[in-house]
Write a structure and sequence with these properties.
Blueprint lengths: L8 H4 L1 E2 L10 H11 L3 E5 L5 E6 H6 L12 H5 L8 E2 L10 H11 L3 E6 L3 E7 H20 L5
Antiparallel strand pairs: 1-6, 2-3, 3-4, 5-6
Length: 153
């Protein structure tokens, strides 16, 4: 378990993740969510600088209405661009952040994944709860292997 304390985000993140353009249609984003079982996808410009994050929650929010708004047809909503509903200025993390600190952050903000950016907000990865859980398991498994090995004769 102590090995986990040495892990950084860069050790377990998904490098060069799938991202989407702010001009993409919500229909395209929904297809990404379905095909890859994503809960969110980074929104980037042509140079892969992070502009926002689009989550399933954001997609659902496109269908929200109140007493003054009639619900548009499903197809009309799905033709809107990603930038109309994306979360702007999402919480991000740096690749060198220790996983132990990330674990605290994920628990505090109750999010499923975070974009990983370097200076200038350039997207370099994405880190998820699942990545952290795998790292915890890996650190524990390595320790157990070392503890259970037979001593040399």
């Amino acid at each position: 378990m102590y090995e986990f304390l040495h892990y950084q985000i860069r050790d377990v993140m998904t490098v060069d993740p799938i991202a989407i353009s702010p001009k993409a249609k919500l229909r395209e984003a929904e297809e990404l969510f379905e095909t890859h079982d994503f809960n969110g996808v980074p929104v980037v410009d042509s140079q892969r600088y992070l502009l926002g994050m689009l989550t399933k929650f954001d997609l659902l929010n496109a269908f929200r209405f109140d007493a003054h708004t009639l619900v548009p047809h499903y197809d009309d909503i799905m033709e809107q661009t990603v930038e109309t509903v994306m979360t702007r200025e999402p919480i991000t993390v740096a690749p060198q952040l220790p996983l132990s600190r990330l674990l605290q952050k994920l628990v505090e903000i109750r999010t499923k994944s975070l974009p990983v950016v370097e200076e200038g907000q350039r997207l370099v990865g994405i880190i998820s709860r699942q990545d952290v859980l795998k790292a915890l398991r890996r650190a524990t498994t390595k320790r157990e292997v070392l503890t259970h090995e037979d001593p040399a004769p």
